Task: structure prediction
Amino acid sequence: MKHVSILIPRGHTSLVNIEGTHQILGEVNKILSQMGRDPIFNVKLVGLSRATTQTSGLFTVNPDVLINDVKKTDLIFIPALHDDQVRAREMNKEFIPWIINQYKNGAEIASFCIGSFFLASTGLLKGKQCTTHWIFANEFRNMFPDVILLDDKIMTAQDGIYTSGGAYSYLNLLLYLIEKYAGRDVALIISKAFMIDIDKDNQSQFIIFKGQKGHDDEQVKKAQEYIEKNFNEKITIEQLAGMLALSRRSLERRFKKATCNTVTEYVHRVKVEAAKINLESSRENVNEVMYNVGYQDPKAFRETFKRITGLSPIQYRKKYNREMTP
Result:
């Protein structure tokens, strides 16, 4: 039987992550028993103190055991920690050596949503792929530049470390792990019972691009503001560099450092975000939308749109524009 440790951090934590994981893994054991197979998960809530009260004061979680009582575990779940991430790490720093030691002794680790910040603070994600909630992607990159962030992914898996994207995408990671340990047949039953879309692997369609301005480079901010006001026109790097009295090389270097995007990629993301809003709310056809945001080549527009959102413009409209739904 696989020993599972669901961490109960101090502070403001996702109770949904905790209770949902506990409930679904318990259901896996019931299904296996009904199939005449042995249960495979021994699930424990593992905390730092006997009663862990949320900072809101509304809820208290009583762990089954404390970390010092768990000498060996097989799978650790880290829920989303919603406090300021530096403060959350400080409040829960006693977990860190325990997590590192368990991983070195063969345990696997899964973080949900912004639980990836806490996981990254252990150093175990250095040089590895991970994902997190898309809203916090830039903050994550700034805090952990040595981690390979794939913010368009629903989940990642590398070297026994798993991460999930934003909010309820933790359910997709759970299904992945259930399939790994209990088989595809059980994962499908859980998928249907809890109505979880199995095999979803991309959160790009949910991303709302608002521009990355949480930096101090005023010249780059001017370039961003110009792009956002004139996205429907042709914008070149040379044009922006001349406007700001910078060399092209200097602008590209500073822009990438400040926004985590190249200038060209930023222009495309601004255009596609405008196209998304249009597709969600208007009855204009795809070509009209394309021209409105400054594209002239339908093939280039479709390819760029799908690369950024994971859907074609037509698929996006069908999914998000209620007026256009038959």
